DNA sequence: ACGCTGGGTTCGCTTGACGAACCGTGCACA
DNA sequence: TGTGCACGGTTCGTCAAGCGAACCCAGCGT
C-alpha cells in the first residue's frame, strides 16, 4: 500500500509539516505527474485529506493533510528515518533529530513487551498468526 | 533504498525466518525474475547476505540471511505490520502477534523521549536538522 | 540414463516513472 | 482592459521496471 516509490517520502514530508504541492515537489524532486498521482492515491487510501486553504491575497487552493490513518504511520516513518540516520549518515542528507515538544529531549523508537522489557531484535521475538502456530516453514530460529 | 515494490516484503519474510528463494516466492507471490533482482540488490546493499547451506541428501545451495544492517530495519517492518494489523484487519491476511521470547508478553513499538515520556504522535515532536533550524517552510505546526 | 527439484534466466507485454511542455484559474499591477 | 505571474495540475513521448510463462542447468537419488 505504501510500496510505490514516492508514497513514504510524501508521508515523511507531511510529518515534517509540508502540505503544499509545490513544497512537496521542491522537497522531493519528484516529477509533477508522479506527485499528482501519488497524492491522489494517498487521498484515495485515506492517508491524506485534500483540504482547501487560502493565503492572503491569493486564490483558494488545496493542501494535503494527514488523516488519523495516515498519522498512525508515524512510527514506521520515524523508524526508517532513524535507520537512515544510522546507516546512511554522510550521504549528503544531514540527520534529523526529533525532540519532544516541551521537554526538549530527543525522541527514539523502541520495541518493548507488555511486561516492560526492551526487545533488542527479531531473535527475541516469536511471531504467531493470531495465536495459532505458523505452518512448518523454517521459522523456528528467525532472522539469523 | 527500500522503495522498490518488494524490498520491504522480502525483509518482512526474512524477519519471520524465511530464507530460501522458493519459500520467499511462495510467501510473496512475486515473479521469479523480480525476486531474483530484488534479492541481488538487497545483497548489494548489504541488507541480506547470501550464504551457502546444504540439506541432507541435496546439493549445496544458497539462502539469504539478514545482516546487522538489515536486522536494524526490524522496527520499521514491525511498525508497518502493526499499522496493517490495525487498519487493514479483515482484508484476508490474519494479524500477526509478536511475543517476547521467554516472557511471552506481546511486543509493541513505541516512541519515547530520553526523559522517559511516551510520545503520542508527530504533533508532540519538533524536527531539527542536526540541531540547526529548518528553513522557513510551513513547518511550525506539523502534521495537522 | 533418467527424471526431479531448487534456483535461476530469457522473452514479450503491460504498467509506471521520468522530464519537458502546455493549460487554466484568479490575483496584482499597469 | 489587458498583461504577467504563480500555483497546481495535465499531456506527451520515452525509457525503466514489473509481470507470467517458458526455458535452463547442476546435481542428487534410483
TrEMBL record, chains A, B:
It comes from the Bacteria. Residues 122-144 are annotated as: Disordered. Gene3D superfamilies: Winged helix-like DNA-binding domain superfamily/Winged helix DNA-binding domain (1.10.10.10). The keyword Membrane does not apply. The keyword Acyltransferase does not apply. Keywords: DNA-binding, Transcription, Transcription regulation. Pfam families: HxlR. Signal peptide: none annotated. Residues 1-92 form the HTH hxlR-type domain. GO terms for molecular function: DNA binding. This is Transcriptional regulator, HxlR family.
